[in-house]
Structure formats: C-alpha cells, structure tokens
Task: inverse folding
C-alpha cells in the first residue's frame, strides 16, 4: 500500500505521513524543502521516499504523477496563506498561492482520481480549512482557495456516489493549527490552535470511516454551524474583525 502526501515537510502533512507509515503504508513525501523531507523520512517507521517538487508548476505535478502512478491514498496538503488588504497584496505571491493551493491540488486530484476510478479503489484527502465556510477579508485569496478545495471535493463525492464507485474523497477543514502556517502568512491566531499531530490522527481516522467533511475540534464545528445561520454580510464583518486581531 502506498500513500503520497504533498506538503509533507512540516505540520499536518508531516504528521499524516508519519501516522500512515506507522499503519504500514509506504509513503512518498513531496515538498520543495528537501532537507526537511529527509528529517520526516527518518521519523517514518516504514519505507519513505522523498520527492522534491515545486507544486506551483503544472509540468512538475504531471511529472510526479507519471513517476508514482500506482498509489492507494493521495493527501493534497500543500498550501500557504498571506495576510493583507487585497489591493495591497503582492500579485505574484497571490498567483503563486493559487497555483499551489488550487491548481496543483486540482491537477493531482484529476490525474489520480481517473486511475482510482478505473481500478475502483483508493482515497483522496484534500486539505481545506474552516476558512472555506467564511468570507475572508484581509486574507481574501487564501480563503477563496480553500473554498475551491471544499467545493471541488464535495462535487466529486457526489459524482462518485452516483457511479457507485468505491473510491472515497474527503475534505479536511481544520481551524487554527500550531504549524509554520502562521509564520508564512504573517499572522497571529487569537484562538489557541490544535496540535498538528491531533489533527492528523483525527483526519486519518475519519477518512477511513469515509467521512466527507472532516472538522477537528468542537469549537470549530460550532463555528461552521454558525456560519450557516448568519447572513453573508454579517459574516464578512465578523470575519474582518477577527482577522484584524491576527495582524502582526
């Protein structure tokens, strides 16, 4: 059994890789950070192969798929955020974020799903966020990318269900997690984050139970329910005030 995990050099991706390895999976660790991947590989109990990749490149995504075609689990975890007013944000960095958070995930999901459907087995775990349920002023591009991930995954789920396919897809939607994300996005979360180890274990457990939308943490679950009850404009105002408190 094989699992490919993107963004496996740290955080949730790292812990998912280690836990799947402990479950007996051969893991393929994908990230642009080669030295960090080596450290993660050394923590895996089974076979762990590292693959250095720039996920913002479609060609590199296709190349990785061509090398590792036969896998049982795909975890699309790679992604990053950025804080700031939309008119002030750096366009190049925003487009790179869309390439990593959306395009790479879309390409890999498409390529691996087609093969999984043919053999009628396999799982895909796409890492979204509770941000997918909210407007995201001051992190507008990031929130939008995570909304895309959630909508894509739920849409694919229904297509697979109607085909009576045995292939399963899930969307992991964590809230604040204690990872390098905060540093990369230049934000400070006001709420205490969950550990990446807990989120990884929870995600794997729910994935194998065929849960479509996986939301770790009771407070986060309540927050998502609240998002469904409040008007969109009110949510946008609340989100702005919450985001503003994150500013470094």
Result:
């Amino acid at each position: 059994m094989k699992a490919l995990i993107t963004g496996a050099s740290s955080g949730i991706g790292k812990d998912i890789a280690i836990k799947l390895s402990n479950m007996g999976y051969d893991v393929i660790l994908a990230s642009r950070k080669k030295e960090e991947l080596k450290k993660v590989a050394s923590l895996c109990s089974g076979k762990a192969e590292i693959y250095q990749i720039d996920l913002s490149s479609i060609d590199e995504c296709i190349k990785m798929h061509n090398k590792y075609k036969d896998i049982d689990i795909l975890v699309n975890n790679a992604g990053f955020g950025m804080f700031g007013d939309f008119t002030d944000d750096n366009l190049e960095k925003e487009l790179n974020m869309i390439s990593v958070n959306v395009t790479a995930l879309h390409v890999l999901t498409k390529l691996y799903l087609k093969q999984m459907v043919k053999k009628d087995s396999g799982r895909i775990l796409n890492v979204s966020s509770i941000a997918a349920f909210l407007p995201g002023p001051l992190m507008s591009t990031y929130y939008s990318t995570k909304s895309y991930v959630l909508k894509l995954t739920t849409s694919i789920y229904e297509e697979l269900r109607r085909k009576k396919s045995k292939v399963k897809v899930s969307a992991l939607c964590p809230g604040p997690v204690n990872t390098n994300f905060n540093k990369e996005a230049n934000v400070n979360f006001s709420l205490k984050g969950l550990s990446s180890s807990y989120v990884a274990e929870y995600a794997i457990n729910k994935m194998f139970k065929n849960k479509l939308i996986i939301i770790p943490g009771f407070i986060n679950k309540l927050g998502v329910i609240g998002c469904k009850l409040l008007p969109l404009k009110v949510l946008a105002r609340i989100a702005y005030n919450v985001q503003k408190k994150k500013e470094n």
Notes: The two ends are 43 Å apart (CA to CA). The mean pLDDT is 93. The chain is about 50% helix and 15% strand. The chain has one domain: 2-244.
